[in-house]
Amino acid sequence: MSFYPIFVQLEGKKVVVVGAGNVAHRKVRALLECGASIYLAGRELVSELEQMVEKEEIHFLGREFKDEYLDNAFMIIAATDDKDLNHRISTCAREKGVWVNAVDQPPDCDFIVPSILKRGDLQIAISTSGKSPALARKIRKGLETQFGQEYETFLAMMGRLRKEVLSLGLPQEENSRIFQKIVDADLLENFSDGFPKRLEKYLKNILPEQVNLKNLWKP
């Protein structure tokens, strides 16, 4: 089976996680970074999950999974070490029309979670369609040296630059030409130490004079 690659907006959406161990903790932590509202069910929580519950970072539903936990949920992740329970959760979720991921049980999944390389707003997702997560992790580690932290800095600048250029109301073709020329200029190596001043001269030759370069140099 081939999975359709997609990035999902989870800000404020109810996501249920069933599990109490380290795998559940990793899932919860990643979901929180995306702004999801987490509802957790699990028997013996690891200390990190207990602290999240105590700090009210996540909502604790109870120690045993109940079908009603899925009411108004956007998605659920079954991260227990009980395959039969994970399967039951998957069956219930599908009946209710809730997206489900059962860890290490592809047939019980509506979606799978890829191995992610993240540099700020840059995210590179690697998937083997569930056939070899170990290979996906190996590929991700290989990409870590190719895509350093300078991509985060560069992309932050490009976000500010794009906003300023689009506000000028230039023709779409001109906007595309400007953005493509900057991306093709191999400027990334100059961003390892932030925004060096020597880039200003280069950018002035590309950007419309109305663009305030000082607005781009933010940490």
Kindly list the characteristics that best describe this protein.
single chain; 3 domains; 219 residues; Rossmann fold; two-stranded antiparallel ribbon; 38% helix; 15% strand
Can you offer a commentary on this structure?
The chain is of the alpha/beta class. The protein folds into 3 domains: 14-113, Rossmann fold (3-Layer(aba) Sandwich), CATH 3.40.50; 114-147, Double Stranded RNA Binding Domain (2-Layer Sandwich), CATH 3.30.160; 150-215. 38% of the residues lie in helices and 15% in strands. It is built from 7 helices and 7 strands; from the N terminus they run E-H-E-H-E-E-H-E-E-E-H-H-H-H. The protein has helices at 22-33, 47-54, 83-96, 133-146, 150-166, 172-183, 198-204; strands spanning 14-18, 37-41, 59-62, 75-78, 99-102, 115-119, 122-126. The strands form 2 sheets. The protein has a 5-stranded parallel beta sheet with strand order 3-2-1-4-5, with helices on both faces. The longest helix has 17 residues, at 150-166. The radius of gyration is 22 Å and the shape is elongated. The mean pLDDT is 90.
Task: Provide a quick synopsis of the model.
This protein is α/β, with parallel strands linked by helices and 219 residues long. It contains seven helices and seven strands, in the order E-H-E-H-E-E-H-E-E-E-H-H-H-H.
